[in-house]
Design brief:
The complex is a heterodimer of chains A (110) and B (322). Chain A is 82% helix and 0% strand. Chain A has helices spanning 2-17, 29-49, 54-78, 81-108. In chain A, helix 3 runs antiparallel to helix 4. Chain B has 322 residues and is an alpha+beta fold. Chain B has 2 domains: 55-146 and 276-322, no CATH class; 149-271, Alpha-Beta Plaits (2-Layer Sandwich), CATH 3.30.70.1880. Chain B starts with 22 loop residues before the first helix and ends with a helix. Classes of the chains: A mainly alpha (110), B alpha+beta (322). At the A-B interface, helix 1, helix 2, helix 3 and helix 4 of A face helix 1, helix 2 and helix 3 of B.
Chain lengths: 110, 322
């Protein structure tokens, strides 16, 4: 739970402070945000499953964002940046959908 | 084939699952939850509630806050329009405004110079003869180089729908250059002395063309609604519109494509003049028949007034008539 509280505090701080993102990192932002969404949905589902764990949640969150950005960076260097981005978005999108379906089953029992 | 006809016994093959080659998809589809959660839960179940150190908690919270800030910053940054794009747009807008102001200033200057040329011409020719001046005025009106006032008709055409601005405007619902050409030709044939479309005076060399969906008169783009103003005998021009079939054509445009049009007589119309036309041909007035009573004076004044084409073209016309 403490991780979720920390995350909310961080989001509020980000909204208030509006920090500038360095220009170098800007190509990786969309994928990083999608990866963060994936980790969020995973955490929510784990919570409903009764399996939630602060450490796992945060580490998966961090590694998702970093790995996603890394894949895009690698793709850019190899000249297949847009294709790799598509691949990452597809995989993460499927995961988000499945997790959202599981959450829906938990909440609506349907 | 064996003798008793039974099929040969195949050795039992150990088959994997049919979708063995799709482990990646299976992994993604059927186990989207991070296995780490299950592992952590199992570990917790194995040795009771785990004790967390104070340092571990602080680290965890710090990480959570950091991730929240980073994600929010990324989302905010993605929502904001790209500054470079905005900047480029602003620069282009600025450039358009600047150039437009330049063009306007030049047009104003051109008008001033034309007026100056006109007064100089009148001054120079004032002593010469009134008939030349009268001819000039008439020729100027006919060629479109002089502003004209008088009674006439206004034919108005408007695009159906939202015009050029709206996205759903199909090409058929817009006024075409051929529509305007048809109306203008009918007006000329009805004895119009001067015609202007949206204050663009038509001369003998004017062209009504289209570029894409826009209509150009002498390379000047026009915006709907299109007002075709003609000075002359209103009744004659209206009957010419009917006689040449332009009225029927306008009615057809209205019923088929929703292009609205109207024809109205006006007691007073003011048409602007075209700036001095380009000079293609010139000759000294009265050169073939040297009957000028004041050769020295007229010679110098002709030198001064050589640029205005009105003088020379009218003289040229006179010569050819003679």
């Amino acid at each position: 739970m403490i991780a979720v509280v920390g995350l909310v505090v961080g989001v509020v701080a980000g909204l208030v402070l509006q920090p500038q993102v360095p220009v170098v990192l800007q190509p990786y932002l969309p994928i990083a945000v999608v990866a963060a969404l994936d980790a969020l949905f995973g955490g929510l589902r784990a919570m409903l499953d009764g399996l939630f764990d602060d450490k796992v949640f945060l580490v998966s969150f961090l590694s998702n964002v970093v790995v996603a950005a890394l894949i895009v960076f690698l793709g850019d260097q190899l000249g297949v940046g847009s294709q790799l981005s598509t691949a990452v978005v597809v995989v993460l999108g499927i995961r988000i959908f499945s997790n959202a379906a599981a959450i829906r089953r938990h909440i609506f029992k349907a | 084939m064996t003798a008793d006809g039974t099929p040969p016994q195949k050795p039992p093959v150990r088959r994997g699952p049919v979708d063995a080659s799709m482990t990646l998809l299976n992994e993604v589809m059927h186990r989207p939850l991070d296995p780490g959660y299950a592992a952590a839960a199992a570990a917790r179940a194995a040795d009771g509630t785990p004790r967390r150190t104070r340092g571990g908690v602080v680290l965890l919270v710090a990480l959570a806050v950091l991730l929240g800030v980073v994600t929010t910053a990324a989302a905010i940054d993605l929502r904001a329009p790209r500054p470079a794009v905005l900047e480029a747009r602003a620069t282009l807008e600025q450039e358009i405004t600047d150039r437009q102001a330049q063009a306007d200033a030049l047009a104003t200057r051109s008008g001033e110079l034309s007026a100056q040329i006109g007064t100089l011409q009148d001054e120079a020719l004032g002593g010469l003869s009134d008939s030349v001046l009268a001819d000039l005025a008439q020729e100027g009106a006919l060629t479109g180089s002089q502003a004209v006032e008088g009674a006439g008709v206004i034919v108005t055409l408007d695009d159906a729908g939202g015009g050029l601005g709206s996205d759903d405007a199909s090409s058929a619902s817009l006024v075409h250059d051929s529509d305007l050409q048809r109306v203008v030709n009918a007006l000329w044939s009805g004895g119009a002395e001067a015609v202007a479309i949206n204050d663009q005076r038509l001369t003998g060399l004017s062209a009504i063309r289209s570029a894409g969906d826009a209509i150009l008169v002498d390379l000047q783009p026009l915006v709907a609604p299109y007002h075709v103003e003609a000075v002359g005998d209103a009744d004659a021009m209206r009957s010419a519109l009917v006689r040449t079939g332009a009225s029927d054509y306008l009615r057809l445009l209205s019923s088929q494509y929703g292009i609205e049009s109207s024809v109205a007589a006006q007691s007073r119309l003011a048409l602007p003049g075209r700036p001095t036309p380009t000079l293609y041909f010139a000759s000294v007035p009265g050169a073939p028949v040297d009957s000028d009573p004041d050769p020295a004076g007229s010679g110098t004044s002709d030198e001064d007034t050589a640029p205005p084409a009105g003088t020379d073209s009218s003289d040229q016309r006179q010569e050819s008539v003679e």
